Amino acid sequence: MLYFIEQCLNGVQLGMLLFLLAAGLTLIFGIMDLVNLAHGSLYMLGAYFAATFAAFTDSFVLGALLALVATAICGMVLEVIAIRPLYGRPHLDHVLGTFGLLLFFNELVRLVWGPAGMTLSLPSAMLTAVQIIPGLYYPLYRLVIILVALAVAALLYVVVMRTRLGMLIRAGASNREMVGALGVNIKLLYTLVFGLGATLAGFAGLMQAPILTVQIGMGENILILAFVVIIIGGIGSIRGAFVAAVIVGLIDTLGRAFLPDVLHSVLSVNAAMTLAPAISSMSIYMLMAAVLVVRPEGLFPAASR
Amino acid sequence: MTEPLLQVAGLTKRFGGVVAADAIALDITAGECHAVIGPNGAGKTTLVGLLAGEIAPQGGSIRFDGRDITALAVHNRSQLGVARSFQTTSLFAEFTALDNVALAVQAHAGHSFRFWTSARAEAALREPALQALEDVGLAARAEARVDKLSHGEQRQLEIAVALATKPRLLLLDEPMAGLGADESARMVALLRRFKGAITMLLIEHDMATVFALADRITVLVYGRVIAGGDPASVRADAAVREAYLGEHDARHD
Amino acid sequence: MKAARKVLGVPLPACWLAPRTALPAAVLVVLGLVPVYAAATGDPFALTLFGRIEILAMAALSLNLIMGYGGMASFGHAAYLGIGGYAVGILWKEGIGSGFVQWPVAIAVSALFALVVGALSLRTRGVYFIMITLAFAQMVYYVAQGLDRYGGDDGMTIGSRSSFAGLVNLNNAAQLYYLCFALLLASLFLVSRLVNSRFGLVIEGTRSNERRMRAIGVSPFRYKLVCFVIAGALCGLAGALLANHTNFISPAMMYWTRSGDLMVMVILGGLGSLFGPVLGTVTYLLLEEALSRVTEYPGLFIGPALLLVAIFMHGGIEGLFGARRRD
């Protein structure tokens, strides 16, 4: 039972990271109608920046903050130079262009940081585990990820639902022309939204960095998971992204943790050990396929699309 | 009297709180040209959508040629002989005019699971298609791509495509939309030629056109039929004058 | 060597006789002469590189059939390459070395997979379609990773190529190459017939305007599904070729970036043009090859190049020759 709770927490933690990534993706998608395959590159950049700056400043927190700023700047520069000309073009041109960016960033990272990958060490205070219920010790850092991501989610909610920028974002998601007609500087709005998405992606990357290694292509797998999340949640919906991220995180983690045992009860050990990873990896895709078959626009379709 | 070709009874469609079709009853006799008029937002295009099968009604029934087609899909209705033109031109933009019409002919010439021989070389498809183009006066533009045609020519092509499906009932959703005076006159002349041969339901704003073509008129306001009959009686109807004709003078598309 | 000339001598369909035939013809002639060059210089690498190009061009051709002509943007097309390859590899491992069994199985399994994926995915539109096809491909990818008996994550070397006793000997590099070449030509011919047939017109018309297609009396779903299955089968055949070409199968051949590569080849060449995918594949792979010879970081140049193509070159390479039919 304790193991189950621990795995649930792990699932929620993965879900939170997915949410950070998916929130930016779904905003960019919902507002600019842009399919951005390079979103995972910003996740990767965030991790590399953090590892570099943390080593340089000898402080995890300072390194992380600098990395956030750097990723945000990268995102906005990228938007102005490369992304802006793609708005309003067919989705397949987005796929082509941002796929090119993905190749570019992978290579750039290899050039700058080398092919070996990096590690980002946690401050020693983070290396402990805390007892959250009697008998269950859980790594402090993972708890921190969950709490910080929840805080970001809450902040994002407040920004989107309560501020002028958020109002524009929501209006932009449902009616681009109207926002433009209101005299809002739509170019600036798009750059800011893209920068916000980049920052969230970079944030996810640097949070994940101490748990996994920082390496080239680290954004590719998780980008696809993030796409699954926004498709399940409904494109353009932050709330949908949140719910779907938690669902996907839980299914993925619990599948990996418990499927071998479950299968073992009906199959031989060998068959279970072979099948379980495949099935648990597949499970979220099956979920997505099932959702799309039943609800072709996702669980929480945004108002107009 | 024989059974009407199209019998609509109690047809109802609501979009949220808006009633776009409120228990519409309508009979169209074979061979007649039946105009549906009404102010903006009266539900005219919704009615075409309901009859063509693009919109599912919440109540009521549609009978075509004695058969209940209320639940039938768009393509099935087309196969039975219900054709339509679209208010906003809707064609295969990258195809030539002839390809557009030939595809409509093909759609009514058995299934299209034929993978090898070139459909563009099939006389059985091209000849009727050319004929339809000639019927609407577009034969000279047969090989022009749709996006190179003028707006007026595209409207004519809409008619040709509908005709190529050998319709028994033709739903015309504002065929004059966006046409200049000359082009409109040509379109009216065109439609008049098929009058009698093909049963038509005509949605139209332009009163001159309506009175020039229609055998009978139904007046729709806020999704409800408020009057119907031959042109003279509709013109004289007080309710119609108040609800529609008065307003019509004030606004022109 | 003479066989190739003959293959080139096959009467080409009428649509190839347009003024723009020079480039495709030149490309095909060059492809046909590669073994001559290889024999003359004693450099077998050209055969490997161009053989790979031909195989991937076939895959791109099949993707173009659904994506370019049919408007069905599948982001999971590499799955069929993988399925075709694994069919060959698995059968070999189980002691069935005959290509007469392996290849039909590769085609049939790919077609079956396409039938299932298509039946479920074709209910969705636009980006949702892109993503659901991607999801199915990822599933196959993970299944392959789980196949420990067939190499799991690391993949598996195939000990011997498909045997076509008495017909061709795939262990002969030139024969394998010419088989790839012949199948590429056959695929081009097949697609050119297909897209001009009644079936093809329904497919193209549906991409152009599905609502109108219904209004004239056609329900597009079955046609799209059949088109999806044909494309899957053709790509499965390319996968069987690929497995023979590299003697190796691994899950990596269907990772999502592989599907991305295929999409890039098609869009680069020009969507919905017959020869575009071949041009796109040749350009993309040669560019990759050339850059990797002069720089350690080819991606630094290929990436921005793709972006520039996306921004400035509407209609891909074929679009440069006035073949632009759509945005």
Report the largest inter-chain contact.
Answer: A-C, 50 and 47 residues
Strand content of chain A: under 5%
- CATH homologous superfamily name of the largest domain in chain B? P-loop containing nucleotide triphosphate hydrolases
- Indicate the CATH architecture of the largest domain in chain B: 3-Layer(aba) Sandwich
Number of helices of chain A: 11
Tell me the total number of β-strands of chain B: 10
Largest sheet report of chain A: 2 strands, antiparallel
- Which fold name is given in CATH as the topology of the largest domain in chain B? Rossmann fold
Order of helices and strands of chain B: EEEHEEHEHHHEHEHEEHH
Assembly level: heterotrimer
Distance between the termini of chain B: 39 Å
CATH class of the largest domain in chain B: Alpha Beta
Largest sheet of chain B: 6 strands, mixed
Give the number of domains of chain A: 1
Structural class of chain A: mainly alpha
Helical percentage of chain B: 25-40%
Strand arrangement, largest sheet of chain A? Answer: 1-2
Q: Strand percentage of chain B, roughly?
A: 15-25%
Which labels suit this protein?
heterotrimer, B: 253 residues, alpha/beta, Rossmann fold, 2 domains, six-stranded mixed β-sheet, four-stranded antiparallel β-sheet, 37% helix, disordered C terminus, C: 327 residues, mainly alpha, ABC transporter involved in vitamin B12 uptake, BtuC, two-stranded antiparallel ribbon, 14 helices, 71% helix, 1% strand, disordered N terminus
Structure, explained:
The complex is a heterotrimer of chains A (305), B (253) and C (327). By secondary structure, chain A is mainly alpha-helical. In chain A, 75% of the residues lie in helices and 3% in strands. In chain A, a hairpin with a 2-residue loop joins strand 1 and strand 2. The radius of gyration of chain A is 20 Å and the shape is globular. Chain B has a six-stranded mixed sheet, with helices on both faces. Chain B is globular. The termini of chain B are far apart. Chain B folds into two domains: 1-81 and 168-187 and 195-253, Rossmann fold; 92-166, no CATH class. With 327 residues, chain C is an all-alpha fold. Chain C has one domain: Orthogonal Bundle (ABC transporter involved in vitamin B12 uptake, BtuC), CATH 1.10.3470. Chains in contact: A-C, B-C. The interface between A and C is large, with 50 and 47 residues.
